[in-house]
Amino acid sequence: MWGMIATWRMAAEGITAGAELLAAGKNAGDAVETAIRAVEDFPYYRSVGYGGLPNEEMEVELDAAYMDGDTLSIGAVAAIRDFANPISIARRLSCEKVNNLLVAEGAEKFAQKEGFERKNMLTDRAKAHYRKRVKEMTARELKPYSGHDTVGMACLDQDGRMTAATSTSGLFMKKKGRVGDSPISGSGFYADSKRGAASATGLGEDLMKGCISYEIVRLMGEGMSPQDACETAVNRLEAELKERRGEAGDLSVVAMNNRGQWGAATNIEGFSVAVVTQSLEPTVYLVKRGKDGHCTCEEASAQWMEDYMRTRMAPVEE
Predict the structure, then answer these.
(1) Where is the site described as Cleavage found in this chain (predicted)?
(2) Is there a domain that residue 260 lies in?
(3) pLDDT value at position 140?
(4) Measured between alpha carbons, how far is 67 from 75 in angstroms, rounded to an integer?
């Protein structure tokens, strides 16, 4: 059995490419890296990689992470600039015995030394979004979902190896050097081939308060299905945050266990996931949460898919 699940519709083409590798017997590391690179390279997905939305100084700072569920090896970069595929740099770092999480200038020096492709990741389209946002911010409070979505994936190959990976440009108009949950082990991602893998997207500052990806994998290890583990982790963290702080940010997660079963949960409207398994063609689902905290996954309609791409590729009106 093999499979892959990812956050958001933007991952659909990526998991399709990754599925071709999994079906051919390739490993989960190659599949998840290939899948995330596809998202990073597409300029119209404005929250990941090339064309990602900039920080308040109009710089694109990228975060990415990779974890091997067999060895528990981790690699991550944060606040890295001007490199095309941070996921590949993160995976390379997972091969090191130490220095597995590098940030900013240190990450850039490592990437340059290792020969990774340098690239100006700030596009004209992203600049237009920035200028538009500057105008809006004079009258509105900054919100995390003004263009912020992390692509996160969990992957299982035919040999039972699992991986998890993330990539994002982070919170739009964030402070220079801000790092969210995405490159932080246990928060934005976690993989353990004995149990499963999970990844998260949302308000990183709140996701980190519950180490939510690790919690989901832990719950799967105790026998919960991926769906139950995702719902339990989201509902518990949301309730805890509301009790202690009076509010909870956006929390959305995906998971897959070591048998290829998958799950997704959220506390917001509008969360989507992309899934492919040995028995399921690449499919986009809309995750809807009921009043009882239970989440259902409904296949996205052709009209929804068409509207999604039309919105993403529409001209930016400043």
Answers:
(1) 149-150
(2) yes
(3) 61
(4) 7
Tell whether residue 181 is among the known ligand binding residues.
Answer: yes
Dist CA 181 CA 184 (whole Å): 5
| Catalytic (active site) residue 150 | yes
Look at residue 10 and give its three-state secondary structure.
Answer: helix
Please give the model's pTM, rounded to 2 decimal places. Answer: 0.96
Neighbour tally for 271: CB within 10 Å: 27
Instruction: CATH number of the domain at 247, please.
Output: 3.60.20.30
Alpha carbon distance 299, 277 (integer Å): 15
Residue 28: domain span: 3-313
Q: How confident is the model at residue 132 (pLDDT cuts 50, 70, 90)?
A: confident
Number of domains in the chain: 1
Asked, for residue 318, whether it belongs to a domain, the answer is no
Q: How far apart are CA 13 and CA 11, in angstroms?
A: 6
Mean pLDDT of 204-232: 98
Known binder of ligand: residue 124? no
246 is in an annotated binding site: no
